[in-house]
Structure prediction request, 505 residues.
Amino acid sequence: MSVDRIANARLRDRVVSAEAAAALIQPGETVAMSGFTGSGYPKAVPVELARRIEAVHAQGNPFQIKLMTGASTAPELDGALAKADGIAMRMPFQSDPDARNRINEGKLDYIDIHLSHVAQHVWFGFYGEIDTAVIEVSAIREDGSLVPSTSVGNNKTWLDLAKKVIVEVNEWQPAGVDGMHDIYYGTALPPHRKPIPLVNANDRIGDTALRCDPDKIVAVVRTNGPDRNSPFSPIDGTSEQIASHLIEFLKHEVKKGRLPPNLLPLQSGVGNIPNAVLAGLAKSGFRDLAAFTEVIQDGMLDLLRDGVLSYASCTGFALSPQANETFKEHIDFYRERIIMRTQEISNHPELVRRLGCIGMNGMIEVDIYGNVNSTHVMGTRIMNGIGGSGDFARNGFLSAFLSPSTAKNGSISAIVPMASHVDHTEHDVSVIVTEQGLADLRGLTPRKRAQVLIDNCAHPDFRPQLQDYFDRASRESYGKHTPHLLPEALSWHQRWLDTGTMKGM
Prediction:
Protein backbone atom coordinates (compact mmCIF):
# COMPACT_ATOMS: atom_id res chain seq x y z
CA MET A 1 0.00 0.00 0.00
CA SER A 2 1.51 3.33 -1.05
CA VAL A 3 1.76 6.16 1.45
CA ASP A 4 0.37 9.55 0.49
CA ARG A 5 3.30 11.94 0.08
CA ILE A 6 1.10 14.78 1.38
CA ALA A 7 0.63 13.91 5.04
CA ASN A 8 -0.67 17.31 6.14
CA ALA A 9 -4.47 17.36 5.81
CA ARG A 10 -4.71 21.13 5.52
CA LEU A 11 -2.32 21.23 2.56
CA ARG A 12 -3.89 18.13 0.99
CA ASP A 13 -7.04 20.24 0.63
CA ARG A 14 -5.07 22.68 -1.55
CA VAL A 15 -4.19 20.17 -4.25
CA VAL A 16 -5.00 21.59 -7.67
CA SER A 17 -3.97 20.96 -11.27
CA ALA A 18 -0.75 22.41 -12.63
CA GLU A 19 -2.86 24.58 -14.95
CA ALA A 20 -4.79 26.04 -12.02
CA ALA A 21 -1.58 26.68 -10.10
CA ALA A 22 0.06 28.41 -13.08
CA ALA A 23 -2.97 30.70 -13.33
CA LEU A 24 -1.99 32.17 -9.94
CA ILE A 25 1.17 33.70 -11.45
CA GLN A 26 0.59 37.12 -12.95
CA PRO A 27 2.46 39.13 -15.63
CA GLY A 28 5.39 41.12 -14.30
CA GLU A 29 5.88 39.00 -11.20
CA THR A 30 9.24 37.99 -9.81
CA VAL A 31 9.04 34.20 -9.60
CA ALA A 32 11.61 32.12 -7.71
CA MET A 33 11.74 28.44 -8.61
CA SER A 34 13.61 25.45 -7.25
CA GLY A 35 16.21 23.57 -9.27
CA PHE A 36 19.94 23.11 -9.51
CA THR A 37 21.64 21.59 -12.60
CA GLY A 38 18.60 19.70 -13.79
CA SER A 39 17.58 18.29 -10.42
CA GLY A 40 14.79 19.24 -8.06
CA TYR A 41 13.10 21.74 -10.36
CA PRO A 42 9.28 21.98 -10.70
CA LYS A 43 8.17 19.72 -13.55
CA ALA A 44 4.58 20.77 -14.29
CA VAL A 45 3.78 24.36 -13.32
CA PRO A 46 6.43 26.01 -15.56
CA VAL A 47 5.14 24.07 -18.59
CA GLU A 48 1.57 25.20 -17.93
CA LEU A 49 2.77 28.75 -17.28
CA ALA A 50 4.55 28.73 -20.66
CA ARG A 51 1.34 27.59 -22.37
CA ARG A 52 -0.60 30.35 -20.66
CA ILE A 53 1.98 32.94 -21.69
CA GLU A 54 1.80 31.77 -25.30
CA ALA A 55 -1.98 32.07 -25.23
CA VAL A 56 -1.79 35.60 -23.84
CA HIS A 57 0.79 36.56 -26.46
CA ALA A 58 -1.46 35.14 -29.20
CA GLN A 59 -4.12 37.62 -28.08
CA GLY A 60 -1.60 40.44 -28.54
CA ASN A 61 -1.00 41.07 -24.84
CA PRO A 62 2.34 41.12 -22.98
CA PHE A 63 3.25 38.50 -20.37
CA GLN A 64 6.72 37.99 -18.95
CA ILE A 65 8.14 37.19 -15.52
CA LYS A 66 11.45 37.76 -13.79
CA LEU A 67 12.89 34.32 -13.03
CA MET A 68 15.25 33.26 -10.25
CA THR A 69 16.45 29.72 -9.51
CA GLY A 70 19.29 27.95 -7.73
CA ALA A 71 21.28 27.40 -10.94
CA SER A 72 20.52 25.88 -14.35
CA THR A 73 17.37 23.80 -14.65
CA ALA A 74 15.89 21.87 -17.58
CA PRO A 75 13.79 22.13 -20.76
CA GLU A 76 10.51 22.02 -18.82
CA LEU A 77 11.48 25.21 -16.99
CA ASP A 78 14.09 27.43 -18.66
CA GLY A 79 13.46 25.97 -22.10
CA ALA A 80 9.66 26.17 -22.04
CA LEU A 81 9.56 29.71 -20.67
CA ALA A 82 12.31 30.96 -23.00
CA LYS A 83 10.57 29.53 -26.08
CA ALA A 84 7.37 31.23 -24.98
CA ASP A 85 9.23 34.55 -24.66
CA GLY A 86 8.06 34.51 -21.07
CA ILE A 87 11.26 35.59 -19.28
CA ALA A 88 12.13 39.27 -18.93
CA MET A 89 15.08 38.71 -16.60
CA ARG A 90 16.94 35.56 -15.55
CA MET A 91 19.41 34.91 -12.72
CA PRO A 92 21.78 33.47 -11.53
CA PHE A 93 22.96 30.65 -13.86
CA GLN A 94 21.53 28.99 -16.95
CA SER A 95 22.51 26.41 -19.54
CA ASP A 96 19.42 26.14 -21.74
CA PRO A 97 20.13 26.70 -25.47
CA ASP A 98 16.96 28.71 -26.08
CA ALA A 99 17.54 30.94 -23.07
CA ARG A 100 21.20 31.37 -24.03
CA ASN A 101 20.30 32.39 -27.57
CA ARG A 102 17.82 34.96 -26.36
CA ILE A 103 20.37 36.37 -23.92
CA ASN A 104 23.00 36.67 -26.65
CA GLU A 105 20.48 38.27 -29.02
CA GLY A 106 19.81 40.94 -26.39
CA LYS A 107 16.18 39.84 -25.95
CA LEU A 108 16.47 38.48 -22.40
CA ASP A 109 18.16 40.32 -19.56
CA TYR A 110 20.55 38.11 -17.62
CA ILE A 111 22.34 38.74 -14.33
CA ASP A 112 25.36 36.51 -13.79
CA ILE A 113 26.27 36.33 -10.11
CA HIS A 114 28.34 34.17 -7.75
CA LEU A 115 26.08 31.45 -6.41
CA SER A 116 27.09 32.28 -2.84
CA HIS A 117 25.75 35.82 -3.35
CA VAL A 118 22.26 35.02 -4.60
CA ALA A 119 20.42 34.36 -1.33
CA GLN A 120 22.06 37.16 0.60
CA HIS A 121 21.57 39.73 -2.18
CA VAL A 122 17.89 38.81 -2.36
CA TRP A 123 17.68 39.15 1.43
CA PHE A 124 19.38 42.54 1.11
CA GLY A 125 16.56 43.61 -1.20
CA PHE A 126 18.77 44.23 -4.22
CA TYR A 127 16.27 42.60 -6.63
CA GLY A 128 12.99 43.67 -5.10
CA GLU A 129 10.32 41.41 -3.65
CA ILE A 130 9.58 37.81 -4.60
CA ASP A 131 5.95 37.48 -5.61
CA THR A 132 5.71 33.70 -6.07
CA ALA A 133 7.89 30.72 -5.24
CA VAL A 134 7.41 27.42 -7.10
CA ILE A 135 9.21 24.66 -5.24
CA GLU A 136 9.50 20.93 -5.87
CA VAL A 137 9.57 18.68 -2.80
CA SER A 138 9.56 14.93 -2.34
CA ALA A 139 6.95 14.99 0.44
CA ILE A 140 5.00 17.14 2.88
CA ARG A 141 5.19 15.89 6.44
CA GLU A 142 2.25 15.79 8.84
CA ASP A 143 3.48 18.96 10.56
CA GLY A 144 3.54 20.79 7.21
CA SER A 145 7.31 20.86 6.79
CA LEU A 146 8.57 20.23 3.26
CA VAL A 147 11.06 17.47 2.45
CA PRO A 148 13.28 18.68 -0.41
CA SER A 149 13.94 16.45 -3.37
CA THR A 150 17.24 16.16 -5.27
CA SER A 151 18.36 19.74 -4.84
CA VAL A 152 18.07 22.40 -2.17
CA GLY A 153 19.59 25.44 -3.87
CA ASN A 154 17.96 28.68 -2.73
CA ASN A 155 14.67 27.06 -1.71
CA LYS A 156 14.90 28.18 1.92
CA THR A 157 15.25 31.81 0.87
CA TRP A 158 12.46 31.54 -1.70
CA LEU A 159 10.08 30.05 0.88
CA ASP A 160 11.03 32.60 3.52
CA LEU A 161 10.58 35.65 1.31
CA ALA A 162 7.90 34.82 -1.27
CA LYS A 163 4.45 36.35 -0.83
CA LYS A 164 2.80 33.17 -2.09
CA VAL A 165 4.08 29.63 -2.60
CA ILE A 166 3.20 26.85 -5.02
CA VAL A 167 4.49 23.40 -4.02
CA GLU A 168 4.97 20.51 -6.42
CA VAL A 169 5.11 17.11 -4.69
CA ASN A 170 6.99 14.79 -7.04
CA GLU A 171 6.41 11.10 -6.35
CA TRP A 172 9.13 10.13 -8.86
CA GLN A 173 11.67 11.36 -6.33
CA PRO A 174 12.73 8.63 -3.87
CA ALA A 175 10.92 8.79 -0.53
CA GLY A 176 14.19 7.65 1.04
CA VAL A 177 15.76 11.04 0.37
CA ASP A 178 14.06 12.16 3.60
CA GLY A 179 16.85 12.68 6.15
CA MET A 180 19.56 13.49 3.61
CA HIS A 181 19.11 17.26 3.83
CA ASP A 182 20.58 19.78 6.25
CA ILE A 183 18.74 23.10 6.18
CA TYR A 184 20.50 25.72 8.28
CA TYR A 185 18.28 28.41 9.80
CA GLY A 186 20.97 30.35 11.63
CA THR A 187 21.84 32.95 9.00
CA ALA A 188 21.06 36.62 9.62
CA LEU A 189 21.59 40.00 8.04
CA PRO A 190 24.49 42.29 9.04
CA PRO A 191 25.19 43.41 11.70
CA HIS A 192 23.53 40.44 13.42
CA ARG A 193 25.44 37.59 11.81
CA LYS A 194 27.02 34.88 13.91
CA PRO A 195 29.66 32.25 13.06
CA ILE A 196 28.33 29.25 11.17
CA PRO A 197 28.96 26.20 13.42
CA LEU A 198 30.34 23.94 10.70
CA VAL A 199 33.88 22.68 11.29
CA ASN A 200 33.97 19.48 9.24
CA ALA A 201 32.52 18.92 5.79
CA ASN A 202 30.14 16.27 7.17
CA ASP A 203 28.84 18.26 10.14
CA ARG A 204 25.07 18.60 10.39
CA ILE A 205 23.94 21.99 11.64
CA GLY A 206 20.30 22.28 10.58
CA ASP A 207 16.94 20.63 9.96
CA THR A 208 16.12 17.81 7.56
CA ALA A 209 13.16 19.69 6.05
CA LEU A 210 12.15 23.17 4.91
CA ARG A 211 9.79 25.36 6.88
CA CYS A 212 7.04 27.40 5.28
CA ASP A 213 4.12 29.35 6.68
CA PRO A 214 1.15 27.22 5.53
CA ASP A 215 -0.92 30.37 4.99
CA LYS A 216 1.44 31.32 2.13
CA ILE A 217 0.97 28.02 0.29
CA VAL A 218 -1.74 28.77 -2.25
CA ALA A 219 -1.54 25.55 -4.26
CA VAL A 220 -0.13 22.03 -4.10
CA VAL A 221 0.41 20.09 -7.32
CA ARG A 222 1.03 16.35 -7.52
CA THR A 223 3.63 15.34 -10.12
CA ASN A 224 5.53 12.25 -11.15
CA GLY A 225 8.37 13.17 -13.46
CA PRO A 226 12.12 12.54 -13.66
CA ASP A 227 14.95 14.98 -13.24
CA ARG A 228 16.54 15.85 -16.58
CA ASN A 229 20.28 15.26 -16.52
CA SER A 230 21.95 14.01 -19.69
CA PRO A 231 24.22 10.98 -19.85
CA PHE A 232 27.92 11.79 -19.69
CA SER A 233 30.04 10.98 -22.71
CA PRO A 234 32.63 8.25 -22.24
CA ILE A 235 35.89 9.61 -20.80
CA ASP A 236 38.14 10.43 -23.74
CA GLY A 237 41.91 10.55 -24.02
CA THR A 238 42.12 14.32 -23.58
CA SER A 239 40.13 14.22 -20.34
CA GLU A 240 42.26 11.35 -19.06
CA GLN A 241 45.46 13.29 -19.78
CA ILE A 242 44.16 16.36 -17.96
CA ALA A 243 43.11 14.21 -15.03
CA SER A 244 46.48 12.45 -14.95
CA HIS A 245 48.40 15.75 -14.79
CA LEU A 246 46.25 17.03 -11.92
CA ILE A 247 46.43 13.79 -9.93
CA GLU A 248 50.21 13.66 -10.25
CA PHE A 249 50.30 17.23 -8.98
CA LEU A 250 48.14 16.30 -5.96
CA LYS A 251 50.43 13.37 -5.20
CA HIS A 252 53.40 15.74 -5.37
CA GLU A 253 51.70 18.12 -2.93
CA VAL A 254 51.13 15.23 -0.51
CA LYS A 255 54.77 14.20 -0.81
CA LYS A 256 55.86 17.77 -0.08
CA GLY A 257 53.66 17.85 3.02
CA ARG A 258 51.42 20.61 1.71
CA LEU A 259 48.41 18.29 1.58
CA PRO A 260 47.44 15.41 3.91
CA PRO A 261 47.33 11.88 2.45
CA ASN A 262 43.53 12.10 2.15
CA LEU A 263 43.80 15.57 0.58
CA LEU A 264 41.32 18.28 1.59
CA PRO A 265 37.59 18.50 0.77
CA LEU A 266 37.09 18.40 -2.98
CA GLN A 267 34.91 20.70 -5.05
CA SER A 268 34.28 19.67 -8.62
CA GLY A 269 32.47 21.33 -11.50
CA VAL A 270 30.19 19.31 -13.75
CA GLY A 271 31.34 17.58 -16.92
CA ASN A 272 33.50 14.91 -18.47
CA ILE A 273 36.84 16.31 -17.29
CA PRO A 274 35.83 16.46 -13.59
CA ASN A 275 34.40 12.94 -13.94
CA ALA A 276 37.74 11.82 -15.37
CA VAL A 277 39.55 13.40 -12.40
CA LEU A 278 37.27 11.57 -9.99
CA ALA A 279 37.83 8.27 -11.81
CA GLY A 280 41.57 8.88 -11.71
CA LEU A 281 41.51 9.50 -7.97
CA ALA A 282 39.93 6.08 -7.48
CA LYS A 283 42.71 4.40 -9.47
CA SER A 284 45.53 6.34 -7.79
CA GLY A 285 45.32 4.89 -4.31
CA PHE A 286 43.68 7.85 -2.55
CA ARG A 287 41.30 6.87 0.25
CA ASP A 288 39.17 8.51 2.95
CA LEU A 289 38.49 11.55 0.75
CA ALA A 290 35.75 14.10 1.42
CA ALA A 291 33.79 16.45 -0.83
CA PHE A 292 32.36 19.86 -0.01
CA THR A 293 30.90 20.87 -3.32
CA GLU A 294 27.83 22.17 -5.12
CA VAL A 295 26.93 19.14 -7.21
CA ILE A 296 27.35 15.39 -6.95
CA GLN A 297 27.72 13.72 -10.32
CA ASP A 298 28.25 10.13 -11.40
CA GLY A 299 31.93 9.98 -10.45
CA MET A 300 31.28 10.90 -6.83
CA LEU A 301 28.60 8.23 -6.47
CA ASP A 302 31.18 5.71 -7.72
CA LEU A 303 33.76 6.96 -5.20
CA LEU A 304 31.26 6.70 -2.35
CA ARG A 305 30.28 3.19 -3.38
CA ASP A 306 33.91 2.07 -3.64
CA GLY A 307 34.91 3.61 -0.31
CA VAL A 308 37.32 6.11 -1.85
CA LEU A 309 35.09 8.99 -0.75
CA SER A 310 33.89 8.78 2.85
CA TYR A 311 31.17 11.40 2.54
CA ALA A 312 30.04 14.27 0.33
CA SER A 313 28.29 17.57 1.02
CA CYS A 314 26.40 19.28 -1.81
CA THR A 315 23.32 21.30 -2.74
CA GLY A 316 22.15 19.21 -5.69
CA PHE A 317 22.76 16.31 -8.06
CA ALA A 318 23.80 16.12 -11.71
CA LEU A 319 23.36 12.41 -12.37
CA SER A 320 22.97 10.55 -15.62
CA PRO A 321 19.75 8.51 -15.90
CA GLN A 322 21.67 5.32 -15.11
CA ALA A 323 23.32 6.85 -12.04
CA ASN A 324 19.91 8.16 -10.94
CA GLU A 325 18.58 4.64 -10.90
CA THR A 326 21.61 3.45 -8.92
CA PHE A 327 21.08 6.28 -6.45
CA LYS A 328 17.42 5.39 -5.97
CA GLU A 329 18.15 1.67 -5.66
CA HIS A 330 20.78 2.22 -2.94
CA ILE A 331 19.23 5.27 -1.31
CA ASP A 332 19.73 3.96 2.23
CA PHE A 333 23.47 3.58 1.62
CA TYR A 334 23.84 7.07 0.13
CA ARG A 335 21.67 8.76 2.75
CA GLU A 336 24.34 7.92 5.35
CA ARG A 337 27.11 9.46 3.24
CA ILE A 338 25.56 12.46 1.45
CA ILE A 339 24.45 15.73 3.03
CA MET A 340 22.44 18.20 0.94
CA ARG A 341 22.63 21.82 2.09
CA THR A 342 21.26 25.19 1.11
CA GLN A 343 23.22 26.93 -1.62
CA GLU A 344 24.29 29.73 0.71
CA ILE A 345 26.04 27.10 2.88
CA SER A 346 27.42 24.81 0.15
CA ASN A 347 29.10 27.83 -1.50
CA HIS A 348 29.78 29.96 1.55
CA PRO A 349 33.21 31.64 1.09
CA GLU A 350 34.06 31.51 4.80
CA LEU A 351 33.33 27.79 4.97
CA VAL A 352 35.28 27.11 1.77
CA ARG A 353 38.28 28.88 3.28
CA ARG A 354 37.91 27.25 6.70
CA LEU A 355 37.70 23.76 5.24
CA GLY A 356 40.51 24.42 2.76
CA CYS A 357 38.67 23.13 -0.29
CA ILE A 358 40.43 22.05 -3.49
CA GLY A 359 38.49 23.65 -6.33
CA MET A 360 38.47 21.97 -9.75
CA ASN A 361 36.57 23.88 -12.42
CA GLY A 362 36.41 24.26 -16.18
CA MET A 363 37.26 27.34 -18.19
CA ILE A 364 36.83 28.77 -21.68
CA GLU A 365 40.26 30.38 -21.83
CA VAL A 366 43.14 31.68 -19.75
CA ASP A 367 45.61 34.37 -20.70
CA ILE A 368 49.36 34.06 -20.32
CA TYR A 369 49.27 35.79 -16.93
CA GLY A 370 46.66 33.49 -15.40
CA ASN A 371 43.42 35.46 -15.78
CA VAL A 372 40.59 33.00 -16.44
CA ASN A 373 37.49 33.47 -18.56
CA SER A 374 34.88 30.87 -17.64
CA THR A 375 31.74 32.46 -19.07
CA HIS A 376 32.08 34.27 -22.41
CA VAL A 377 33.00 33.06 -25.90
CA MET A 378 35.04 35.73 -27.69
CA GLY A 379 34.38 38.05 -24.78
CA THR A 380 30.74 38.76 -25.62
CA ARG A 381 28.63 35.60 -25.95
CA ILE A 382 27.61 34.12 -22.62
CA MET A 383 27.79 30.35 -22.28
CA ASN A 384 26.27 29.49 -18.90
CA GLY A 385 27.55 31.74 -16.12
CA ILE A 386 30.15 31.88 -13.38
CA GLY A 387 28.20 29.55 -11.11
CA GLY A 388 30.08 28.72 -7.95
CA SER A 389 33.57 28.57 -9.42
CA GLY A 390 34.51 31.97 -8.02
CA ASP A 391 33.36 31.03 -4.53
CA PHE A 392 35.92 28.22 -4.50
CA ALA A 393 38.66 29.84 -6.60
CA ARG A 394 39.10 32.87 -4.37
CA ASN A 395 38.61 31.11 -1.06
CA GLY A 396 39.84 27.54 -1.48
CA PHE A 397 43.21 26.10 -0.52
CA LEU A 398 43.89 25.36 -4.19
CA SER A 399 42.06 26.53 -7.30
CA ALA A 400 42.64 24.46 -10.44
CA PHE A 401 41.13 25.34 -13.82
CA LEU A 402 40.95 22.58 -16.39
CA SER A 403 40.44 22.64 -20.16
CA PRO A 404 41.62 21.11 -23.42
CA SER A 405 44.28 23.36 -24.92
CA THR A 406 42.23 23.96 -28.08
CA ALA A 407 38.57 24.13 -29.13
CA LYS A 408 36.57 24.10 -32.36
CA ASN A 409 38.70 21.46 -34.07
CA GLY A 410 41.92 23.23 -33.15
CA SER A 411 40.95 26.67 -34.47
CA ILE A 412 40.80 28.25 -30.99
CA SER A 413 43.57 28.27 -28.40
CA ALA A 414 42.50 28.08 -24.75
CA ILE A 415 45.75 29.91 -23.89
CA VAL A 416 45.61 33.46 -25.28
CA PRO A 417 47.64 36.67 -24.92
CA MET A 418 44.82 38.46 -23.08
CA ALA A 419 41.56 36.93 -21.85
CA SER A 420 38.60 38.41 -23.70
CA HIS A 421 36.60 38.41 -20.45
CA VAL A 422 37.87 37.88 -16.91
CA ASP A 423 35.90 36.01 -14.26
CA HIS A 424 38.82 34.88 -12.08
CA THR A 425 41.80 37.17 -11.86
CA GLU A 426 45.38 35.94 -11.72
CA HIS A 427 45.25 36.48 -7.93
CA ASP A 428 42.71 33.66 -7.50
CA VAL A 429 44.17 31.04 -9.83
CA SER A 430 46.62 28.45 -8.49
CA VAL A 431 46.92 25.86 -11.24
CA ILE A 432 46.07 25.58 -14.94
CA VAL A 433 45.80 22.14 -16.52
CA THR A 434 45.39 21.11 -20.15
CA GLU A 435 46.16 17.81 -21.86
CA GLN A 436 49.58 19.30 -22.65
CA GLY A 437 50.55 19.66 -19.01
CA LEU A 438 50.15 21.57 -15.76
CA ALA A 439 51.25 25.08 -14.82
CA ASP A 440 51.70 25.73 -11.10
CA LEU A 441 51.34 29.51 -10.88
CA ARG A 442 51.70 29.87 -7.13
CA GLY A 443 54.39 32.25 -6.01
CA LEU A 444 55.30 33.34 -9.54
CA THR A 445 55.55 36.87 -10.89
CA PRO A 446 53.48 37.70 -14.00
CA ARG A 447 56.28 37.15 -16.53
CA LYS A 448 57.26 33.84 -14.93
CA ARG A 449 53.63 32.75 -14.99
CA ALA A 450 53.50 33.54 -18.69
CA GLN A 451 56.49 31.39 -19.52
CA VAL A 452 55.27 28.44 -17.43
CA LEU A 453 51.85 28.58 -19.07
CA ILE A 454 53.27 28.77 -22.59
CA ASP A 455 55.75 25.96 -21.97
CA ASN A 456 53.42 23.58 -20.13
CA CYS A 457 49.83 24.19 -21.22
CA ALA A 458 49.72 25.67 -24.73
CA HIS A 459 49.11 23.46 -27.74
CA PRO A 460 52.18 23.08 -30.01
CA ASP A 461 50.21 24.67 -32.87
CA PHE A 462 49.92 27.90 -30.87
CA ARG A 463 53.02 27.82 -28.68
CA PRO A 464 55.33 29.66 -31.14
CA GLN A 465 52.72 32.41 -31.62
CA LEU A 466 52.34 32.87 -27.88
CA GLN A 467 56.10 32.91 -27.36
CA ASP A 468 56.53 35.49 -30.11
CA TYR A 469 53.85 37.71 -28.60
CA PHE A 470 55.31 37.42 -25.12
CA ASP A 471 58.88 38.09 -26.28
CA ARG A 472 57.90 41.20 -28.23
CA ALA A 473 55.65 42.44 -25.41
CA SER A 474 58.51 41.98 -22.95
CA ARG A 475 60.65 44.29 -25.12
CA GLU A 476 58.10 46.81 -26.36
CA SER A 477 55.33 47.06 -23.74
CA TYR A 478 54.70 50.41 -22.07
CA GLY A 479 55.19 48.65 -18.73
CA LYS A 480 57.25 45.56 -18.07
CA HIS A 481 55.47 44.18 -15.01
CA THR A 482 52.66 42.60 -17.06
CA PRO A 483 53.83 43.14 -20.64
CA HIS A 484 51.17 43.57 -23.32
CA LEU A 485 50.99 44.92 -26.85
CA LEU A 486 47.59 46.55 -26.60
CA PRO A 487 46.82 46.68 -30.36
CA GLU A 488 47.48 42.92 -30.55
CA ALA A 489 46.25 41.73 -27.16
CA LEU A 490 42.77 40.73 -28.39
CA SER A 491 43.67 40.28 -32.05
CA TRP A 492 43.52 36.49 -31.76
CA HIS A 493 39.81 36.67 -30.97
CA GLN A 494 39.14 39.11 -33.80
CA ARG A 495 41.07 36.89 -36.19
CA TRP A 496 38.85 33.94 -35.26
CA LEU A 497 35.71 36.04 -35.80
CA ASP A 498 37.03 37.22 -39.18
CA THR A 499 38.62 34.04 -40.50
CA GLY A 500 37.48 31.12 -38.35
CA THR A 501 40.90 30.46 -36.78
CA MET A 502 43.21 32.03 -34.23
CA LYS A 503 46.26 30.75 -36.09
CA GLY A 504 48.48 33.42 -37.59
CA MET A 505 48.54 33.69 -41.35
Summary: The first strand starts at residue 30 and ends at 33. The chain has a mean pLDDT of 96. The CA atoms of residues 263 and 401 lie 18 Å apart.
